[in-house]
Write a structure and sequence with these properties.
The complex is a heterodimer of chains A (about 775) and B (about 120).
Chain A lengths: L2 H27 L5 H20 L3 H18 L7 H23 L5 H17 L6 H6 L27 E2 L18 E8 L1 H5 L4 H9 L3 E7 L17 E7 L3 H8 L7 E7 H11 L3 E2 L5 H4 L5 H7 L1 H6 L3 H6 L1 H10 L2 H24 L7 H28 L5 H25 E3 L1 H18 L3 E6 L4 E3 H22 L3 H6 L6 E10 L2 E8 L6 H10 L11 H6 L22 H10 L3 E7 L3 E9 L4 E9 L2 E6 L3 E5 L6 E4 L3 E6 L2 E7 H4 L13 E6 L5 E6 L1 E9 L3 H4 L6 E6 L5 E5 L1 H8 L10 H4 L1
Parallel strand pairs in A: 1-6, 8-10, 15-24, 19-21
Antiparallel strand pairs in A: 2-4, 2-5, 3-4, 7-9, 10-11, 11-13, 12-13, 14-15, 14-22, 16-20, 17-18, 18-19, 20-21, 23-24
Helix pairs in contact in A: 1-2, 1-4, 2-3, 3-4, 3-5, 4-5, 15-16, 17-18, 19-20, 20-24
Chain B lengths: L3 E5 L3 H13 L3 E5 L2 H11 L3 E5 L7 H10 L8 E5 L4 H10 L3 E4 L4 H11 L2
Parallel strand pairs in B: 1-2, 1-3, 3-4, 4-5
Helix pairs in contact in B: 2-3
The chains are: A alpha+beta (about 775), B alpha/beta (about 120).
GO biological process, one term (chain B): phosphorelay signal transduction system
Protein name (chain B): Two-component system chemotaxis response regulator CheY
Keywords (chain B): Phosphoprotein
């Protein structure tokens, strides 16, 4: 793994943290005051900041830092997370997301916006909070805690000083340093007396001294006078102290840095040699003592070594009370601890273990590269096909069906189906991330339009295949924009109508009969049918005297180029109409409907397949070829009677179904499977709903049956073929093409499919 | 024998950086995602030194350090805290909980290895 891969992981993680951040803030906005929610929000920003720092993403770090500081105020109850505060925070979350994206993909952010938010965040942190010492402190360069000057006469329990044998150090080497000939490195006298806490926190005097020795020439003396006799000795106490002389050009700060971890748990005095030499240096003869580092690599003979020998004694001291005091700790300790402690703590431990397990079970996930899952799904697809082929050949070769083989096959079929379902479930993901992105869209549009909007999401945990999720965001974003921009009224108007000035947009997801249904409802004005109708007439979409039902008028908005906003607004009028939304939903194998009540709002209902990997299809024969028609497109099938077929123009034919006429489309002719139209009476008509809402009757020769097929991309394996959506492999091993109903229907309207491509060859 | 380091951090990014840095420096690395998991794997991991984050879900760094210090076998193990803040108050808390030392983020491989070497023999 290299830094680039880690960076990639960082950005993935950022996405998760941003989602966590937003959902947390939204929960707070809904009145959730669980401290863990605040903690989770804080941690999300904190994590992003930590990672960003490691990659030197300074913009991200500085924004995250300000954000974090303000969140810390909330966390420590210095700032009440009111709606206004949360508004700023949600916006900040958006900016943080932008900064993350910029850090990953390049580009630039709205500097003014992020600066503005930094100001607002700082105001929040400073305004309510007591002059927050924390904010500036954290920004300041690593402020060193003042070293506890042990200069004050130490309340040392151990008699000291008298027993010292002062140690000299050699100045001989001083001239030797080529670059330091003029600057003579100063010599420091260090008195270092650890407290027992130093050892209990895992520090080790010997290691500190070793570290110190790297700074320069050093001589050292250990005072062991305080060491009592073995019987009186407390194995955990600190009895040794050291006097060190070190000559170093690294400065006093470097020396203090060595003791940085220990400075609170020892008495430490550092003086430059000049200060002391007058007294100490002259009075006492000094002997240079060579400091042998190798001894440090051996077992230290200090208090810790002894402490370890005394382990059993101390182990007994682990009281039941102590064990019980920390539930989580028991869970791990008790399960492996020696039997006697275990017995004592057993009930508590059992309970604790349950808690711990429950907690960890909730979040047990693994991360798998999507490619691997795709490969697996593909393989299972092959397995399903293979199993179908096997069944078919067994049936063909053994018409009587010896029961054991048949039973085995049936079980195999069941198993394959189960494997397929489970594998699909791996790629299934909750729609939550997409819904969360919508929250941002709503906020932004609300800001721009000056409307007040509340987004309610339901069924966020409804799962659907990742491939579907990825393609859902765009149409949804557009629909949300529309709902806020066109659907909801301005607050004044809402008040005038006796509505809550705050508009509501409700986004719901649920599973219904093997599909996912997503509903987007607003409580706005609803579709203005008069206006829509007029517009449709103006745009020559309908005749001026057309007699349309309310539903038909509502569905006019899905027509290409239709926009009812009097002025094309900044938001929705981005050249994308509801027709594009409808098309992208249909491309996903989905349907979209609208129902609207004037003055009460509109509801858009989308129904989508749970996966794009398999499809329920009707297997049909057309001119000797086997085709699959997606079941979702088919409204009904019927056997046309001669009396129901009517000619229209040169080659068009219509079929009358329950007193209405519907164009008859010969699939074989459209796909160039045959040169002349087949006789409708000899075939079957599939009534399909197509883009634009119109119905068509597709003529095929015969229906073979209905089955679930595994979709194989034609583009990936061959090339795009007009009129064909994809391919699949049937039980008999033959390739069957999956019909692109919309393309066939539009071809029948006089937009021919490219004729040069021979479909028979592809089949 | 390779020295064993147990790292406890909820950030996948930081975990990966620790892993790469420590492995490159010749350490054996065992990783946990939060304090609870850190305590769970402690015995099995049997580390020579621990590097832990402070802000973590379920059980934070302070709680984790206290937990380790209560374990008779590991009560004197060196524990380094990896923090974003150089904030004295937080250092203080970490120290009270029993931290041996700390490394201030942004993550710097040299600083990390130096600090680990400072507390391990």
């Amino acid at each position: 793994m290299d830094m680039n891969e880690i960076k990639e992981i960082f950005f993935q993680e950022c996405e998760e943290q941003l989602a966590e951040l937003e959902s947390g803030l939204l929960r707070l906005n809904d009145g959730d005051r669980d401290p863990e929610t605040v903690n989770a929000v804080f941690r999300a920003v904190h994590s992003i900041k930590g990672g960003a720092g490691a990659f030197g993403l300074d913009d991200l770090v500085s924004f995250a830092h300000v954000f974090e500081t303000t969140l810390d105020c909330v966390r420590s109850n210095r700032l009440e997370p009111t709606q206004d505060v949360l508004k700023v925070m949600l916006k900040s979350a958006d900016v943080l997301a932008d900064l993350t994206n910029v850090a990953r993909d390049g580009g630039s952010v709205d500097q003014a916006r992020s600066k503005q938010l930094i100001r607002e965040l700082e105001a929040l942190a400073n305004g309510e909070a007591p002059p927050a010492a924390e904010a500036p402190a954290a920004k300041a360069p690593a402020a060193k805690a003042p070293a506890p000057k042990a200069a004050a006469p130490a309340p040392a329990p151990v008699p000291n000083e008298e027993g010292f044998v002062p140690v000299t150090f050699s100045f001989d080497d001083f001239g030797g340093e080529e670059e330091e000939v003029i600057m003579v490195a100063p010599t420091y006298e260090i008195s270092f007396k650890p407290k027992s806490d130093l050892y209990s926190k895992g520090n080790e005097a010997a290691l500190l001294l070793r570290d110190l020795s790297r700074l320069g020439e050093m001589s050292i003396h250990c005072n062991m006078d305080a060491l009592p006799s073995l019987e009186q000795m407390d194995p955990e106490a600190a009895y040794f102290s050291w006097k060190i002389s070190i000559t170093s050009d690294k400065g006093e700060d470097a020396i203090r840095a060595v003791f940085e971890f220990a400075e609170w748990d020892c008495e430490l005095e550092i003086t430059t040699a000049e200060d002391t030499s007058a007294e100490a240096g002259e009075e006492l003869p000094m002997q240079p003592v060579p400091f042998d580092l190798s001894i440090l690599d051996e077992e230290p003979a200090g208090p810790i070594g002894i402490a370890e020998e005394e382990e059993q004694i101390a182990a007994a001291a682990v009281s039941a009370a102590e064990v019980a005091s920390n539930v989580v700790q028991i869970a791990s300790a008790a399960s492996r601890a020696p039997a006697e402690t275990k017995a004592a703590a057993a009930p508590a431990a059992a309970a604790a273990q349950n808690t711990a397990q429950a907690a960890s079970a909730a979040g047990q996930t693994i991360r798998v590269d999507l490619d691997r899952v795709d490969r697996l799904i593909n393989l299972v697809g092959e397995l399903v096909i293979n199993q179908a082929m096997l069944s078919q050949s067994v049936i063909e070769n053994d018409a009587n069906g010896t029961s054991s083989i048949n039973m085995g096959l049936e079980e195999l079929q069941q198993l394959t189906r189960e494997i397929q379902d489970s594998v699909m479930a791996i790629r299934a993901q909750p729609v939550k991330p997409v819904f969360q992105r919508m929250a941002r869209t709503v906020r932004e549009i609300a800001d721009i339009t000056g409307k007040s909007v509340r987004l309610i999401t339901e069924g966020e945990n409804t799962e659907v295949d990742k491939t579907v999720i990825d393609k859902l965001a765009e149409p949804l974003t557009h629909m949300i924009r529309n709902a806020v921009d066109h659907g909801l009224e301005m607050p004044e108007k809402r008040i005038a109508q006796g509505k809550n000035p705050e508009g509501t947009v409700r986004l719901t997801a649920k599973h219904r009969s093997g599909r996912i249904v997503i509903e987007l409802a607003d409580d706005g004005a609803g579709i203005n049918r008069e206006k829509v109708r007029q517009k449709a007439i103006d745009n020559d979409l309908i005749a001026a005297d057309a007699n349309l039902s309310d539903e038909e008028i509502d569905n006019l908005i899905f027509h290409a180029g239709f926009s009812t906003a009097d002025k094309v607004s900044d938001l929705s009028g981005r050249g994308v109409g509801m027709d594009v939304v409808k098309r992208s939903i249909q491309a996903l194998g989905g349907r979209i409907n609208i129902s609207s009540k004037p003055g009460q709002g509109s509801v858009f209902t989308m129904s989508l397949p749970l996966t794009l990997a398999v499809l329920d299809g009707m297997v049909v024969t057309v001119a000797g070829q086997t085709l699959v028609v997606p079941l979702t497109a088919i409204v009904e099938t019927l056997q046309p009677e001669a009396s129901a077929i009517h000619s229209f123009g040169a080659s068009q034919r219509l079929i009358s179904i329950r007193n209405s006429f519907c164009p008859l489309v010969d699939v074989g002719r459209i796909l160039n499977f045959r040169a002349t139209q087949a006789n409708p009476v000899e075939g079957v008509a599939l009534l399909v709903e197509s883009e634009g809402g119109g119905q068509r009757a597709l003529m095929v020769d015969a229906i073979q049956g209905q089955r679930q097929v595994v979709i194989k991309s034609l583009e990936a394996n061959y090339t795009h073929v007009p009129g064909i959506a994809a391919a699949t492999i049937l039980g008999d091993g033959r390739v069957a093409l999956i019909l692109d109903v919309d393309a066939v229907v539009s071809a029948s309207r006089g937009q021919p499919l490219k004729p040069e491509i021979s479909l028979a060859a592809a089949g | 024998m390779k020295k064993k380091v147990l790292t406890v951090d909820d950030s996948r990014t930081i975990r990966n950086m620790l892993l790469v840095t420590l492995n490159n420096a010749g350490f054996e690395t065992i990783q946990a995602e939060d304090g609870v998991e850190g305590l769970e794997v402690l015995e099995e991991a049997n580390p020579d030194v621990i590097v832990t984050d402070i802000n973590m879900p379920r059980l934070d760094g302070f709680g984790f350090i206290e937990g380790v210090r209560r374990n008779e076998k590991y009560r004197a193990i060196p524990i380094l805290v990896l923090t974003t803040e150089s904030d004295a108050e937080k250092k203080n808390r970490a120290r009270q909980a029993g931290a041996t030392g700390w490394i201030v983020k942004p993550f710097d491989p040299t600083k990390l290895i130096d600090a680990i070497e400072r507390v391990t023999a």
